[in-house]
Design brief:
With about 180 residues, chain A is α+β, with helices and mostly antiparallel strands. In chain A, the strands form 2 sheets. In chain A, strands 4, 5, 6, 7, 8, 9, 10 and 11 form an 8-stranded mixed β-sheet that branches. Chain A has a 3-stranded antiparallel β-sheet with strand order 1-2-3, with no helix packed on it. The radius of gyration of chain A is 19 Å and the shape is elongated.
């Protein structure tokens, strides 16, 4: 199985929140697909933040794609020149005011390897504590939710952690595989 | 926390493999965001297919977003008027030639509730068996891989099941939460 050859690329839109290109590609058997769309995004991060007393620092946010309110991990975009770990620490502090703790990488996954070009780094931060106030962007509206392990597990059982990058990260964290 | 009010909608592209719209929205505090992008997709499905001797029927496929080859669950798009369960059975048969077995719903997740409007139904099919040959679309190139439970778990440990909807589904299946 070989990579596809890109014959031509055209950008449909290049905006801060959506960059989409159309590739014309040649498959290994010679066939041409002249309309293959790829969405380009920066690297994303999310954080499983656990306090010293084993509670989970999560957030609640309105999500306009599904037009509903969801409980989520803290998450965000890696800025240009920023390391994923630093982005994760920054997002946790901005969205919740929590910091410190011991950090390590949990998983590196993709929302969709067929149509998206980015990866999501998921970190575990154990022993975090409140060190500052929340600092949100002008258009962010985020409620901090401190949940017990059992509450997080129940959300996973019920598919209430809807975003699959976050569900996968938490399920990996709790798994004994 | 309230839903956003959509003031205006404009479609940037409406093609079979990419539909993107730009919404102008009003937030609950009155602020206007005039550039919020939503990608519209049909419902997706994937299948954890397990043979009578507890082996996992999976596929290997080139994915142009990340430009690499991945081991995946059988997955696909629900056709217009089709039930998600029927789509899952159809995709398993088309991509692998496997069928029959006992089916039930495992999870309903979203690749990204902020930017995408669709859900993915993940099914467990236990006791599947080869009943036909593979029937691929003209541009599909899919290798069937029959894996042991331990091989699937190792792929999960190593983040080799890269697509988060599939990783989450398998991790939920194997979890004891």
């Amino acid at each position: 199985m070989e990579k596809w050859k890109v014959i031509d690329t055209e950008y449909l839109i290049r905006r801060p929140w959506l960059t989409a290109r159309r590739d014309s590609v040649q498959l290994p058997d010679g066939k041409i697909l002249d309309e293959y769309y790829v969405l380009e995004y920066p690297t994303w991060v999310n954080v499983i933040a656990v306090t010293t007393d084993r509670r989970f620092v999560m957030v609640e946010q309105y999500r306009h794609g599904l037009q509903d309110i969801f409980t989520e991990l803290v998450a965000g975009v890696v800025e240009k020149g920023e390391a994923p770990l630093d982005a994760a620490k920054r997002e946790l502090l901005e969205e919740t005011g929590f910091g410190n703790g011991s950090w390590h990488l949990n998983s590196v996954l993709s929302a969709n390897p067929s149509s998206m070009n980015n990866l999501t780094y998921s970190y575990i931060a154990e022993g975090v504590e409140p060190i500052d106030t929340q600092h949100l962007d002008d258009t962010e509206d985020i409620n901090v939710k401190i949940l017990s392990e059992e509450e997080v597990k129940q959300l996973l059982r019920d598919d209430k952690i809807k975003q699959s990058l976050m569900a996968a990260a938490l399920l990996k964290y709790f798994s004994n595989i």
